[in-house]
Amino acid sequence: MPLDTSTYNLALLRIDGRRWNELRQLRGQIRTQAAADGSSYLEMGNTKIMCVVTGPSEEGKRRNQGASSASAAGSGSSTSASATNAADILVSVVVGGFSTVDRKKRARSDKRIQELQATLAKSLAAVLHTHLFPRSTISLSLHILSQDGSLLACMINAATLALVDAGVPMTDYLVACSAGSTSSHSAADERADPLIDLNNQEEQELPFLTVGTLGASDKVVVLVCESRVQVSRLEGMMVAAADGCVNIRAYLDSVVREKGHRMVAEGAVEKGASMAMDIDV
Amino acid sequence: MASATTQQHLLLSPAELAYLHSSLSLTPPVRPDGRTATQFRPLTAETGVLPAANGSARVCFADGTEAVVGVKAEVEKRKVLPLSKGHEQIRESDGDDAVAGENDWVEITVEIPGYRDDDSSTVFLATMLSEALLADGEFTKKLWINRRFHWKLYIDQIILISPPLSYPLPLLSLTTHLALLSTRLPRLKSEADEDPMFDDDWDASRFIYPRQSSDTTSATVGSRPPVTLLVMAVGDNIIFDPSKEELAVADSALAVSVGERNAPVDEASETMDVDGEPQAGRQLRLLSVRTIDPPSRLTAPGVPNAVNAAAWGQGGPVAKDPGARAAEIDDVEGVWKAPRGGTKVAILGAMVQKVLEKGGIAEEVLDGLDAVDLG
Asked: Which CATH number characterizes residue A127's domain?
């Protein structure tokens, strides 16, 4: 993909006009599906994800009955650390064929999707208090409606919101942010900046990683890096991403508080009150 | 075939089923949620939710089941036809600009989280929907660009709540309908059989199903995407938009696909039309009918041990138990008995008629869908 981030050095502005430490526009909603135990909708720029949580519920029956794919997804992604003493977390990711610019259908067995599912399930298992729900299952399904970079980060954030809605106890918000580095050429590239919250164009060109932290702390829960990065840049990228996580946590918290405030003001949860998903065409 | 999606998590005892069945066979039927036989549940709908797609819609049923449909179009080169046949076709199309489409220009996929990609129920749903869409051959004509190129339309449907809380066919059908209504294709700039070039301006794009206001531009416009409705019968009662519980006691269930044509009425050759009065209101056309296996059909009927080969020797001889045969055949008050045998033709006919009749359900649904703002 011939694309120019070399212009970055001229004005220190990225392709979409952001500075190095600026996030894209965040927009989140919580409790979007009245019929689900927990649900959320999160936009990070043009990456749009809907998350639906079912559970914690009795395990086994649902999985066996709901056709084998659930268990297939489960075997790939579930973290059955101690199957009887903690809740299983099942993650299934559905990538809409319409989510990319060119329509590309990804099969459920796609390795990439399975890896995303496994990463998500493992990192959530570390944060959720699953030991409170022995012999039960928490299943998440993430629907990717539109993708434009930072997919894993957006999925983690959306899952956190939905789990908050479902009322699953957790240590703190699990928030994630991606970071890249403009240094792609030489080790002597002194002026390289870390960039946070990459979009698709930047992801294709720059080395990047995704960091998930526990709330606003510096405790790293997730660290995924699939590209070659100079070791000297790694720390800068992680720090920048952790900074981004702090901002994202603040935003997610505001979404939750706002919804909670509204629910209290209304006295009860009004069905279908949060139907508005206002995306402009 | 559609068993996996029709019968999920239904925990009703035989007594409850019998109660439900008997209250639904009263005249007028008494439905668990107090609706009338022809009343639909309320739904929320919006279109244009996905900026990256050519058209999209999202519909939420009252029970909370929700679907998102995205329509994506890609230009595809036409398959090369065998030489002789190709010549014929070209000659044919030289005469009149014979625009003909092929069915594989449209691809429909249904995705339900927790179901396999090749799960029979999702494949069955997708097939039923595409069957209705392709039934009249009008739709694929809209995808024709020129003799060498055509649009390929991908209709991807996602059900958000898994497992779906009621049989998802009507939901998917309505969502697809809205998504197609909001689908726009870029305006073609190139001419004839050149490689297609399109206008960059999205405002200049044209709707695949033009609205009536812009009818004047072309003569072929007017039809609308089909709507597939679920109808079920209990006894002689015909009930629309059944909920999961109602479907569980259905004697038979039909998926009726209905299309609409606003074109001038002078086409008297339309023998297929099963419409009411052709002049006023909508002109409805029956596109396809499919029977759906309700869960009640999948229940194996009880067999007395005396005649059951598997329980050989367990039950006494038939003569000793004269009530056994009666219990199997007769209706016993308060005892649920799965329907056996086929549906009466008269009832099937009445179900279809009730959908299509003037001021009937299909009109009501289409009127309701008209009210949705196509972003």
From this structure: 3.30.230.70
